[in-house]
Amino acid sequence: MIKYTNQFLVKLEEMIAESDYFLRYEKGNFKSGYCLLHDQKIIIVNKFFTTEGKINILLEILRTATLDISKFSEKNRKLYEELSQEEVKL
Prior knowledge:
48% helix; 16% strand; Zincin-like
């Protein structure tokens, strides 16, 4: 299911945009490649990552952050559930 393409990256970005979080790409030397500010609901990802790196980081964030999926469109809710199922298989 996970495809390391720009189109898949855009789908993940759209999913995060529908949640309460704001996604920004900034330069920085975060040890994990990203910074998650829970109180302000901001996700900052290292802008120098490759597409594959950005996708892996966003998938990790989707697993750890609590997102309000009631605001998701049907398409994004289905994608979120599929990604959750893949996490269980791993």
